[in-house]
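Dear colleagues,

I hope this message finds you well. In preparation for our joint manuscript, I am sending the tRNA_anti-like (Paraburkholderia megapolitana) sequence together with its predicted structure, so that both groups work from identical material. I would be grateful if you could confirm receipt.
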Amino acid sequence: MKTSAKLLLLGFVFLLGCSQHDNDTTTSETTNKSTEVAVSQALQATFEQTRLSLTSSYTSAQHQSEKTVIYKQADEKTKKFWKDHGIEINEWAGRITEINTTDDYPNADIVITSDSGTKYSENNITSSTALSKELSHLSVGSKVRFSGKFAANMGTDDPSEISLTERDSMTSPSYLVEISDLKVSE
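The corresponding structure tokens are as follows:
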């Protein structure tokens, strides 16, 4: 075999190897991303079930005093989750159920509701932020993934469930969040 043919063959084998390595890297990155999303979805489901696991006990309780005890247990379980897992949110999933803006006020409020009925809200999204720009491409009903963290409730340093009634807190809990990333979900 001539030297030029050998070099050409060697170059082809090298390029094929590099291409295979690139494909392996891409496959590995895709697998890692899929694993991260699966872990995030499991963590979200665990968080939401922390409170919702007590819903049937709450709704079947005969007296308001029993319901209040269960409600307080749910709050304690939620606080324990945050203590054990932190307040960060990474690639959680939901559907935009509200986008509120007015002509007089340029800021927006958004509510994302998960499949379990848990609501995540961010208020006062200023129009100059990247989040506002991303939100401008979305509408009510859009399936999204979001990252960020649970926000402290007014008057406290800690996040908490923010529903107006005990019953809503137990059947469709709501949380304030600070969203750092929002994107359409496949």
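For the figure legend, we might mention the following. DSSP finds five helices and five strands in the chain. The CA atoms of residues 67 and 164 lie 15 Å apart.

With kind regards,
E.M.
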